[in-house]
Specification:
The longest helix is centred in the C-terminal third of the chain and has 42 residues. This protein has one domain. It has 3 helices and no strands. It is an all-alpha fold. The chain starts with a helix and ends with a helix.
Length: 72
Amino acid sequence: MFFHLYLWNQWQTWVIILVVVLLLFGATRLPALARSLGQSMRVFRSELKNGEADANSTESTSAESDQSADKK
């Protein structure tokens, strides 16, 4: 908890982190990295939605098959 508050309250720490990132990746590659991160987040979210929809559809079909089996 203390370590988190220490980093959060020290703006100099964030400036140092930003400088290190700029030195490692360069200013020209940062927009490309941000774009690819955004694309991967969109794909991840869509896959989560598809997975939830698939899970809901399989639950409803299994419930329907259980009901039809009970009627026989």
